[in-house]
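input
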Amino acid sequence: MSKLARTQILENIRTSLRRDGAVDTATANGLEARSQSRAPHAQPLIEGSLVDRFIEKHEALSGTVEQVESWSEIPGAVMRFIATHHLPPRVVISGGFPREVDWPPAIEVEQREARGDDSTSVTGSLAAIAETGTLVMASSKSTPVTLNYLPEFHVVVVPEKSIVAHLEEGLRHPSLKGLHLRAISLITGASRTGDVEQTILLGAHGPRHLHIILIRD
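output
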């Protein structure tokens, strides 16, 4: 949008509100208070375990889940996923994995942006939302957004303690505080489209398989 177009749009808004020039102090304070208010919207009641609800919603979208006890079990879980789907023993990963994740020689691991010939990516997540089975993913230097969308198979590591009930909590999760992120992606299930004759096709605009590794620890 050009500067001229923006100026014209704002001028039209002022005219429709019958405001000429700067607003008075009382009006300005009222507008500021309104913009800072955080009145909660109606939210669905989620009974029982948030973990169970998240798994249910994720699997309803053709996703798969494996639960492990600790970070040290991540490599084994990734290798089982690769073997199940007969994939090459190569993965591209994001940064931020703790030292407990010791990748064995049997699998080739690279930390970098994804390329078109990468079949499998392994990333972490900032939070997960039980209400919809959604993942909150960061885009930063150590977590390139290409890892979320280029490979056909995406494995996401989710600590159970990062699962929250509703979307609003996910967007205010403590893991986001202090981070200088270029973008945040909300990913719900594998990529899909119904554009072609209203037939659901997986992998149209991203991974066709989204696998979650849940860590109990």
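quick obs: Residues 3-16 form the longest helix (14 residues).
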